[in-house]
């Protein structure tokens, strides 16, 4: 590509509202442009990266035996009513009406459509297993689109859906997809981990996420320092530590704690570790019939509630929310920071680690008072023990091997075993060997194309800009001529080199720009992250040399003009 005929629109500064490096560099490099919150265009340079990621995904999906199709973005409400998600899916589902007042939505995902296809097209177990995929636009009215292309409202996902006669077959395809995701992410050159995940609103039983490790990641992931165990923190099982925590309070005593409202204040006031304090959180649950119920969740002072786990443990109570201050005042008679389990007359759920405390300090259900030396069995009403907290650094690994460490991750892919959830609701059946109709087992497998590009930048950049891995760089080689329009020799050599590299099958950006200073061209080529660069100047040519530099590896290198092509052939894979 000739830069003179291309749309290169680099900028010196990123807008102030760009928070993370990938967002800043994609804007500065002219890869993407925003039109409204969470709505972006891919400029030509960005689209090249996008297409390369897309084709790696497509190749690996095809290698894994999956078959490509294309489904509509706009989806009829009837299908969503059949799957019961029309009412269950929250405001992320953008609903709209057509001119006949019929309900539609913009597809945030395509389980309903693919299940409709499967129930119409697949009749017999002989057609199974089958894995169908598309690389297509999704729309989710995200509450907080942010970080540029990382979390948008309109985005592109590769989503695949597999259909099976039985669980064994589903497990097999799931394992193949697990390997395929590993291959895709390795080819893109990412440092990633697969983790056990929650199934969220898609539903189903078994699921893994693929996370690119980066400090800016929105998710926390936990992994064992001694085994292969890794899970999203929201899902990682929290186990009570084995060591007994010793407290200095043998008897239950009510003590004055004037003005003390938080665990931090209490720990400072008593000069004890937060591990021997407990906090009691009140949650309010609401059933579909409107019934409200208050329950208490008790955690150790140094632990945080995991709402997802709490929601599962209290599933029969309905949807959970924190009780309001007014509610707590009305029912307990004190402020939120003074609630405790002693004499509490509501359902009591105690996290495993809090339940393992031999004695502890807690609120006395009266302002400015706490109890020390409280024992569960001696001093508290009956309670249920459950896993209710987030794991923390140093917790025992749930597989019994090693301790957990916590890292930040960007979720780029997610695979699920959906089982018969959609096929049962939408009656997607096949006839089995005995000729009976049976609902198909389903799996689904998503990976975000744009988010992969952003995640790659989070891992690969320096002060000068992006360092694209070879496999997804918009161009592989940049040719930068010095004084192209003044030197015949430079013009002839660079034009020639450009043509030869194109013919040889490389993606080349020829910086054939008039009146642009060399320093600016070098800076732009570094900013947009092109892995290989050749600088061609009259002085070098007269010595029979051209200057080569790799974006991230090593110093400038002089190449003999006759050896340039063979050097490139040795060091750069052909793209096309
Ligand atoms: P998140 O927890 O980040 O919202 P999700 O669990 O909703 O993700 P899935 O429904 O599993 O995501 O979608 C599969 C993939 O699609 C994600 O792993 C991610 O790469 C991509 N993706 C999801 N939401 C967005 C978004 N708003 N913008 C860009 N990519 C997205
Ligand atoms: Mg989401």
How does this model look, in words?
The chain has 576 residues and is of the alpha+beta class. It contains 17 helices and 31 strands. The strands form eight sheets. Strands 3, 7, 8, 9, 10, 11, 12, 21 and 24 form a nine-stranded mixed β-sheet that branches. A five-stranded mixed β-sheet has the order 16-14-15-17-20. Helix 1 (21-28) crosses helix 13 (449-459), helix 2 (44-63) runs antiparallel to helix 6 and helix 2 (44-63) crosses helix 13 (449-459). The longest helix has 21 residues, at 167-187. The chain is globular. The model has no long low-confidence stretch (mean pLDDT 94). The structure holds adenosine-5'-triphosphate (ATP) and magnesium ion (MG).
Tags for this entry?
single chain, 576 residues, alpha+beta, 17 helices, globular, binds adenosine-5'-triphosphate, binds magnesium ion
């Amino acid at each position: 590509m000739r830069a003179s005929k291309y749309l290169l629109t680099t900028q010196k500064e990123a807008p102030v509202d760009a928070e993370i490096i990938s967002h800043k560099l994609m804007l500065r490099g002219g890869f993407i442009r925003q039109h409204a919150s969470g709505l972006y265009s891919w400029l030509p340079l960005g689209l090249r990266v996008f297409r390369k990621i897309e084709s790696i995904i497509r190749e690996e999906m095809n290698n894994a035996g999956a078959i490509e199709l294309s489904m509509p973005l706009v989806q009829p409400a009837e299908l969503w009513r059949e799957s019961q998600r029309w009412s269950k899916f929250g405001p992320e589902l953008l609903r709209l009406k057509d001119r006949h007042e019929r309900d539609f939505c913009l597809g945030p995902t395509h389980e309903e459509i693919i299940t409709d296809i499967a129930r119409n097209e697949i009749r017999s177990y002989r057609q199974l297993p089958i894995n169908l995929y598309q690389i297509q636009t999704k729309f989710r009215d995200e509450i907080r689109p942010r970080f540029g292309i990382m979390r948008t409202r309109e985005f592109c996902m590769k989503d695949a859906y597999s259909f099976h006669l039985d669980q064994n077959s589903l497990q097999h395809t799931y394992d193949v997809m697990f390997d395929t995701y590993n291959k895709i992410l390795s080819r893109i050159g990412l440092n990633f981990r697969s983790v056990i995940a929650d199934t969220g609103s898609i539903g189903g039983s078994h699921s893994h996420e693929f996370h690119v490790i980066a400090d800016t990641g929105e998710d926390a992931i936990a992994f064992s320092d001694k085994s292969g165990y890794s899970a999203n923190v929201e899902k990682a099982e929290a186990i009570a530590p084995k060591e007994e925590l010793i407290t200095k309070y043998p008897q239950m005593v009510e003590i004055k704690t004037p003005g003390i409202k938080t665990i931090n204040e209490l720990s400072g006031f008593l000069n004890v570790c937060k591990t021997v304090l407990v906090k009691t959180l009140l949650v309010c649950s609401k059933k579909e019939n409107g019934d409200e119920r208050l329950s208490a969740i008790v955690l150790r002072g140094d632990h945080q509630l995991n709402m997802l786990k709490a929601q599962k443990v209290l599933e029969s109570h309905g949807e959970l929310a924190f009780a309001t201050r007014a509610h707590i005042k009305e029912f307990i008679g004190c402020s939120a920071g003074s609630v405790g389990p002693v004499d509490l007359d509501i359902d009591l759920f105690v996290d495993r680690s809090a339940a393992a405390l031999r004695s502890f300090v807690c609120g006395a259900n009266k302002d400015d008072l706490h109890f020390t030396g409280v024992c569960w069995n001696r001093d508290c009403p009956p309670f249920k023990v459950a896993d209710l907290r987030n794991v923390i650094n140093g917790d025992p690994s749930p597989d019994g091997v090693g301790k957990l460490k916590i890292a930040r991750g960007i979720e780029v892919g997610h695979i699920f075993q959906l089982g018969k959830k959609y096929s049962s609701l939408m009656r997607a059946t096949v006839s089995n060997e005995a000729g009976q109709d049976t609902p198909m087992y389903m799996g689904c497998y998503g990976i975000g194309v744009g988010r992969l590009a952003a995640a790659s930048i989070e891992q690969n950049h320096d002060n000068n800009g992006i360092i694209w891995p070879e496999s997804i760089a918009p161009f592989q080689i940049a040719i930068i001529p010095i004084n192209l329009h003044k030197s015949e020799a430079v013009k002839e050599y660079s034009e020639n080199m450009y043509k030869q590299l194109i013919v040889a099958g490389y993606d080349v950006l020829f910086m054939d720009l008039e009146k642009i200073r060399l320093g600016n061209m070098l800076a732009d080529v570094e900013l947009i992250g092109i892995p290989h660069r050749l600088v061609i100047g009259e002085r070098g040519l007269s010595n029979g040399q051209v200057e080569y530099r790799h974006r991230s590896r090593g110093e400038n290198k002089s190449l003999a003009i006759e050896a340039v092509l063979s050097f490139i052939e040795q060091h750069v894979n052909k793209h096309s």
